[in-house]
Amino acid sequence: MKQNQHVPERSDFSKGAVWRVILIQAVPLMVAQIVHLLYNIVDRVFIGHMPGGEGSLALTGIGLAFPITTIIAAFTSLLSTGGAPLFAIARGAKKEERAEKILNQVAMQLIVASILLSAVCFIWRRPILYLFGATDSSIGYADEYLKIYLCGTLFAMLSTGLNSFINAQGFPSHGMITIVSGAVVNLILDPIFIFGLHMGVKGAALATVIGQAVSCLWVLGFFFSDVSMYHFHADQWAPEWSILKEIIALGTTGFIMQGTNSLVQITCNIMLRSYGGDLYLGAMTVINSIREVLSLPASALSQGSQPVISYNYGARKYSRIKAAVRFNTIAAGIYTLAAWIAVILFPDWLMGIFTEDPEMIEIGSRAMFLYFFGFVFMTLQFTGQSTFTATKCVRRAVFFSLFRKVIIVVPLTLVLPGLGFGSDGVFLAEPISNVIGGTACFVTMMLTLYRRFPPDGEPMP
Asked: N or C: which terminal CB in the chain sees fewer CB atoms within 10 Å?
């Protein structure tokens, strides 16, 4: 990057009202993620309404593939959530060459990781699916979906992993197009492949892969264009271990968050297979889809604030970081409370979007009431976790990623059903973890970080 290159004012996160800067970053990200979720969920809606009574079992099969797709997302997050905050901090400190080197290191490692992951998961996909809770009835659907989905691993990891570097430059609308373009293609192709060409779950997977390829081409085009302030350079692709260590150390938080999601999904699948059956597995697939949608605005707000916090951390504008934390907590808290109320009032309607099976709707509606209890406490987890990550508080970020899922959710999921709660115990583990884990994360962030920020311009103690 040329050192005298002009940096657009919108890329300088140390100026303007903090809440406005965050929203400028978060709203396009939110729109993009909504559309991204929409095309994933449309897959599930179309599959759940497949004719001939196949829908419920096919939906269960797709749910069994989730842990593997989540593992892929975890490795993407390892590199992107580790690299993007370091990239933004380097920008705030005006270390432009370091910022560009971080981008190139992440890009190359995304390519390497995608090739390895797709090969390993493809070769051992059926044993892995059985391990994750598949039965002889559902394995066919899960296998059909997964073997096609894995062909798009490179596209998925590059488009998602590099998109955070577009947002960190102050181009959230370009980042939004990355996801929207692929989503639109997927939405168009889904009904054609699933119903028109009678491809079923294979059609849903193929539409997803094509959509991911379109998103990937847009991301690569951005970095090869003059719009981007940073570009790819072959002489920066060789591993530079000092930088990669920093990326992996900070990205471990994102990796654990995604990886533990996979662990939780696997544990839930296994316990529901024992205490409920295929219908309960299908209901959990629907509930996970609803949770993804309802948690998205709060998640997008915290993700949109991360480059803003990291930039100001590099620029030593600590008062702006405090303002960002306050805004995130209040805005996300109001939203998650409203979402919780909506789940309590309309559970049958929400389940009915995904399935026509009255038994699954009945099971899912009861489970949702349990699963979403205390949903507002997710605000505390989002705000605390994103602040730790954005300011390079690696150990605390990693600990609280592990604490909520591995230390609380997984043990409770394994223990509660055997204590007399049955399948209800699987769904109760989540709200308990939200209350305990979210509160602990936020209080620790306030006491050990927020209150320790010095006056602007001074180094951290």
From this structure: C
Domains in the chain, number:
1
What's the rounded Cα separation, in Å, for the pair 163 and 177? 10
Mean pLDDT of 130-152: 80
CB 13 within 8 A of CB 307: yes
Domain membership flag for residue 457? no
Give the end-to-end CA distance of the chain in Å, rounded to a whole number: 32
Q: Which are the contacts of 255, defined by CB distance < 8 A and separation ≥ 6?
A: 74, 75, 77, 78, 81
Please report whether residue 318 resides in a domain.
yes
Q: What is the average per-residue pLDDT within 61-84?
A: 82
Q: Where are the alpha helices (DSSP H) in 93-152?
A: 96-123, 125-131, 139-149
- Segment 401-420 shows an average pLDDT of 88
Rounded to two decimals, the pTM is: 0.68
The range of the structural domain enclosing residue 288 comes to 16-452
The tokens 């405090």 sit on which residue? 322
Quick check: is 1 in a domain?
no
Does residue 2 fall inside a structural domain?
A: no
Q: How confident is the model at residue 213 (pLDDT cuts 50, 70, 90)?
A: very high
